[in-house]
Amino acid sequence: MEGEGGKAFVGVDLGGTYIKFALVSGNIRILQRRKLPTPQEGREAVVSQMERGIREVGKEIAICGIGIGTPGLVDSRKGVVRGFTNIKDWENVPLRDLLEERMDIPVFVDNDVNMMTWGEYRCGGGRGCRDIICLTLGTGVGGGIVINGRLYRGHSMCAGEIGHIPINVRGPRCDCGGIACMERYVGNAYIVERTVGAIRKGKRSIIPELVGRDLSKITPKIITDAADREDDLAREIWEETGTYIGVALAGLVNFLNPERIIIGGGVAKAGEWLFRPLRKTVEKRAMSLPAREVQILPAQLGEDAGVIGAAMSIKDELIGRSR
Amino acid sequence: MEGEGGKAFVGVDLGGTYIKFALVSGNIRILQRRKLPTPQEGREAVVSQMERGIREVGKEIAICGIGIGTPGLVDSRKGVVRGFTNIKDWENVPLRDLLEERMDIPVFVDNDVNMMTWGEYRCGGGRGCRDIICLTLGTGVGGGIVINGRLYRGHSMCAGEIGHIPINVRGPRCDCGGIACMERYVGNAYIVERTVGAIRKGKRSIIPELVGRDLSKITPKIITDAADREDDLAREIWEETGTYIGVALAGLVNFLNPERIIIGGGVAKAGEWLFRPLRKTVEKRAMSLPAREVQILPAQLGEDAGVIGAAMSIKDELIGRSR
């Protein structure tokens, strides 16, 4: 087999606002990047924008394959996006066939969280493991599962919804229809909501200062800044948030006995303010053997996890490595 | 390959009180059964009792292999029982090697819940699926996981502890050291405790009559008998129990998107009193796609799941079917 460094793959990460593109070498270096707005007119415009971005990052080199991560439910075997409501007409799109026809290059399509998980597994925080769980904390809480070195997709291709593990029998209703889902406590908006609630109740904090008294400007980043400046409320908010996530993860540690849990996404940027209570909760609440064995680590690829995972996915698909 | 019906395997199920033995044909019919007391003197006596039972059920036929399910942590690759506190000296026992030496027949050893899971997967409620979860409800709540048609054991061989998934952030401490584990609400003793508590608080019920006013005689079976006779308290107890189990399962349905969940063990004999609220809770609380797809079914092999699973395990091991 020729040196893999000579081959290049394109990874595409479709979001509601931007489409990110990267040209990735066989030995996993990003050679080119591009970011284009996501067209709002519907599927034809999105597919054309994808083609444009792929051609731009790949114009100086022969591309061996294209991997695409998209939000929503994806049938990766057929390369079909089953559905995603935030992009117009992005439902039952045979994305693989559409792009293969236009580009004449092999295409692999999967859910964006699976792509991130695969990126972290192959070249990030999960490298060298067999069984990992990947968690992404942001507006929502997503997750991916690697078992026996393969992405586990589940019976209807929708496995990994870690954010929708209930952490209480009774509690607030979640957007998914469930009750007391973990996401309902630690999704971006809910972290902010708890913070605003505490400030309105008179809890002392420097957070109102940091946002010029406009509480609608509070974000997880602001709360982290406040925690860095020894703000008690901010630290309590992260302590609570880490505990909630830790309760769900303690259950998964007992159930799945994973080797590593990799945590990324915007909210994970709170760093040790979040990871310390989270790890402490897992240590205290999960059974001693699996709790001792599991490593809980921040994701390593940051914003690149999606495009790198997508590029690795098509690469692995082409060399016949089972995913 | 010759007709499998001509081959026979012995399945052994080690419990704290009894060791069960079955001679199982290649086409999964139980040809012989035996039940011997579990010696309390320690490992040598237990291994000798196993040898005796195996020779008894297998005396009229050539046995191709022996499968043994034992409680506790088992390293099935090495055939070593890592530890189990309820049987004296049952720790770091190289059970496979000990028995292979005595019997000169291939032996396979695994955790008892994994054996039951494998039995249900191969010849019971999970037949024909790829991804199932098995749940056994009794004094404790155990579980097994089949993924891609193989038993999933986890990084430290201790996966499947469904009973130790927390269902509340705050709640009673569990024997495992965790907080608000599902088992802490639905283990045998806790079902009884809730029932006794309600009766002591003056809740009307026919249960005291059924146990001749001796509340220490209440068992899940008694509660089921009372529910059959239209006892409101008994029905409420099962409703609650099904809800608690359903909350944990809703999380697993979202996380793992399994094809089937198979539920056995003594407490599952409550039948529809338990299954109805359990299924209703999963339907209401899990996300619509995985909730619609999953089937939640009672185990089919009953008390035989352990010995059949053990026999199937060694059979599959010998024919090289990956487990």
Identify the notable features of this structure and list them briefly:
323 residues, disordered N terminus, alpha/beta, globular, five-stranded mixed β-sheet, 11 helices, homodimer, 22% strand
The helix content of chain A is 25-40%
Radius of gyration of chain A: 20 Å
Strand order of the largest sheet of chain A: 3-2-1-4-8
DSSP helix count of chain A? 11
Please state the average pLDDT score of chain A.
94
The portion of residues forming beta strands of chain A comes to 15-25%
Spans of at least 5 consecutive residues with low confidence of chain A: 1-5
Total strand count of chain A, please?
13
Seen as an oligomer or otherwise, the chain set is homodimer
> What best-fitting shape of chain A do the alpha-carbon axes yield?
globular
Largest interface: A-B, 52 and 51 residues
The major pleated sheet of chain A works out as: 5 strands, mixed
**Helices and strands of chain A: which structural class?**
alpha/beta
Distance between the termini of chain A: 20 Å
- Report the order of strands and helices of chain A: EEEHEEEEHEHEEEHHHHHEHHEH
